[in-house]
């Protein structure tokens, strides 16, 4: 069994468990309405459905949605799948329909991040939460330098979008400050900011895949680093929880 992916998402799941408990208490019901924008093959959506929540995945890729449906069937859960972009959420779903919206690895790729987050805000009930996960340019610079791509690393640091050039598959990256500013400008009250995958991508998978104790220790290290004032800002991804005002 490969444990590395679970370690990489441990910090996000810990934050999600907290917000799910908070929203369930506020709503007075255990089953929440969750929308996963750009949820792809259901890495988050299917486990959330298995917890008893009503989950809708919106994704532009029909192949990803087909894989999502297969994964959900294998796990014996129901997940609603809709084809579309994050900016189309307002057209695909009614306003005030969600308690929680996931926006993971989406803002890096959409044409207009402000429009996408505005659409997310329209979906949320008052007090509802959005979980945003986005790539961090500082980590990209570090990893490009480790790979010997020094010009690319310097380009990432100089580019306002955090891209290292035309060949970069990620058009846009965010620091903690730019992510908080973006969410605040679209009407959200920003809560916690965590670093995700501070060490996990630097540790060879063979070290954790063959030893459950190593995987647990690495996950604990990731948890400790997630809010560290220095380490958080060099994480591969930044995770932000914010609420609709």
Question: What this model shows, in words?
Answer:
The chain has 245 residues and is α/β, with parallel strands linked by helices. The protein is 44% helix and 21% strand. It has helices spanning 4-27, 45-50, 62-75, 89-92, 113-123, 137-146, 150-158, 176-185, 205-209, 212-226; strands spanning 33-37, 54-59, 80-83, 98-104, 124-135, 188-196, 237-244. α1 (4-27) packs across α10 (212-226) and α6 (137-146) runs antiparallel to α7. The longest helix has 24 residues, at 4-27. The chain is globular.
How would you describe this structure in keywords?
245 residues, alpha/beta, 7-stranded mixed β-sheet, 10 helices, 7 strands, 44% helix, globular
Main structural class: alpha/beta
Spatial strand order of the main sheet: 3-2-1-4-5-7-6
Beta-strand portion reads 15-25%
User: What summary fits the major beta sheet?
Assistant: 7 strands, mixed
Overall body shape = globular
What's the end-to-end separation, in Å?
Answer: 42 Å
In total, the number of strands is 7
> What is the chain-wise order of helices and strands?
HEHEHEHEHEHHHEHHE
The amount of helix comes to: 40-55%
The chain-level mean pLDDT equals 94
Q: How many helix segments? A: 10
pLDDT under 50 segments (min length 5)?
Answer: none
Return Rg in Å. Answer: 18 Å
Describe this structure in a few short sentences.
This protein is α/β, with parallel strands linked by helices and 245 residues long. The chain is built from 10 helices and 7 strands.
Question: What are the SSEs and their pairings?
Answer:
Blueprint: H1 4-27, E1 33-37, H2 45-50, E2 54-59, H3 62-75, E3 80-83, H4 89-92, E4 98-104, H5 113-123, E5 124-135, H6 137-146, H7 150-158, H8 176-185, E6 188-196, H9 205-209, H10 212-226, E7 237-244
Parallel strand pairs: 1-2, 1-4, 2-3, 4-5
Antiparallel strand pairs: 5-7, 6-7
Helix pairs in contact: 1-10, 6-7
